[in-house]
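Subject: sequence -> structure tokens, single chain

Hey, anyone have a minute? Need the predicted structure for the following. Not urgent.
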Amino acid sequence: MLSKSLTVVNPSGLHLRPAGVLSQTAMKFKSDIIIEYGEKRIVAKSVLNVMAAGIKCGAMINVICDGEDEEAAMKTMTEAIESGLGEM
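Reply:
Had a minute. Here:
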């Protein structure tokens, strides 16, 4: 299991479009991918769960990848989040 803290850089947070990009990125992997935000644990493969979490710009999140391809999943998820999920 891998865990990494990241800052959301999207100017408008994780609304529909970036939440969709995040979820589609997570779905490419067999590993379980969880986002911790405050007290919430969000399944990253569910766009509705990601959107419902209300993650704003500048928020600190913890990404957890657990499974057979966790290293590749963590690398890809980190790059996607740090690059603004297509919005920067």
